[in-house]
Amino acid sequence: MIYVALNNVKLNGKHGAFPEEEVLGNTFILNVKVGSTNEKAFIDYADILRLAQEVFNKRENYLETLILNMEMNIKKSISEIDYLFISIKKEHPPLNASVQSSEVVLEKNY
């Protein structure tokens, strides 16, 4: 299998269920890894970033919804995918504790 990955992409967004997140926004760290058993497949990491950003730019209350929408957008656009890993970390989520980040992860074989 051949893999293409984007690591630690820093994005700013207003995702979250708390009212202050919609106003203040937050910093998110995105990691995406795409794999194909077709070693001659051309998977452009610029396309992966564009497809992820298309979804990221639409505000969602829940990172779970965001990550599933990202999966659908990437999978429908790049047919050669046999494996997909996406993680989205929210830095310093507004919780009643000092938390460096929260994270949602999706990992699938097709």
Model description:
The mean pLDDT is 93. The chain has helices at 19-24, 45-56, 63-77; strands at residues 2-13, 26-36, 83-91, 101-109. It has one domain: 2-Layer Sandwich (GTP Cyclohydrolase I, domain 2). The protein is an alpha+beta fold and 110 residues long. The protein is built from three helices and four strands. Helix 2 crosses helix 3. 30% of the residues lie in helices and 37% in strands. The protein is elongated, with a radius of gyration of 15 Å. A four-stranded antiparallel β-sheet has the order 1-2-3-4.
Task: Break the fold down into its secondary structure elements and pairings.
Elements: E1 2-13, H1 19-24, E2 26-36, H2 45-56, H3 63-77, E3 83-91, E4 101-109
Antiparallel strand pairs: 1-2, 2-3, 3-4
Key structural traits:
30% helix, 110 residues, GTP Cyclohydrolase I, domain 2, alpha+beta
